[in-house]
Amino acid sequence: MNKPDDGGKSVRRRAGRPLSFDRDEALEQAMLLFWRHGYETTSINDLTRAMRITAPSLYTAFGDKRRLFLEAAQRYAGDPEASAAAIDNAPTACEAARSILQSAVVTFTGETTPRGCLLASATASGSSSAADVQDVVAGYRQHLRERVRARIERDIADKILPTETDAAALAGMVMAVLQGLSVLARDGASRASLSDIVDTALNAWPTARQS
Question: Between vectors from CA 184 to CA 178 and to CA 187, what angle results, nearest 5°?
């Protein structure tokens, strides 16, 4: 027997029902799972177990796996404006790079988090099925590289760096070291050894010639 039409009130009641779990904590667990195992190899079943929610709750709260990952990646990356301000307000571009890399060393070797970088490890497979996710992650890296490049160009204009300095290449070096630190951290390198690598890399930073 067909149920009487209630004008959609029952649907609205279900849709408006408050979440029965801590959304922020669930997102934290999803972030850690993606960080540990990667985007593609993490299944919905893996996520619901880690987040301690049902699949319908996951879809209601986060949309789907892709949107859940992107929200987790945003949580990991933090406020882009705050990151940009830290780069812009550093005494020099070299000090901005040092701060980025040394902060990454701490993050990549955390005692309560997976090793390495979530943005690097979660999309490392290169599969076409994750291409749109990879594009978003690449955008995070591109944004950081451009902010570092702009800070380097400011130092060139202020004569802190030689006029012939290749700002794009120098910013690329910072990003290359950043990615390398993630790989080495996942391989088990210690925090001290990674910090030494940062110092060694930045010893190659150009300096303005004294007249």
Answer: 150
Tokens of 208: 């303005």
- Of 9, 171, 145, 162, nearest to 83 by C-alpha is 145
Q: Report the interhelical angle of 131-157 vs 80-89 (nearest 10°).
A: 20
CA angle 129, 132, 136 (to 5 degrees): 140
Token pair belonging to 156: 């060139």
Q: Are 51 and 26 in contact (CB under 8 A)?
A: yes
Q: Could you read off the pLDDT of 2-54 as tens digits, one per residue?
A: 444 445 444 343 444 556 789 999 999 999 999 999 898 899 999 999 999 99
Fold agreement between 21-74 and 78-202: no
Q: How many CB atoms lie within 10 A of CB 107?
A: 17
Q: Where are the domains of the chain?
A: 21-74, 78-202
**Amino acid letter for position 185:** A
What pTM does this model have?
A: 0.84
Topology annotation, domain 78-202: Tetracycline Repressor; domain 2 (1.10.357)
Would you tell me how many other CB atoms lie within 10 Å of the CB of residue 173?
17
> What does each C-alpha distance from 171 to 139, 175, 178, 204 come to in angstroms?
15, 6, 11, 13
Task: Confirm or reject CATH 3.40.50.300 for domain 21-74, answering yes or no.
Answer: no
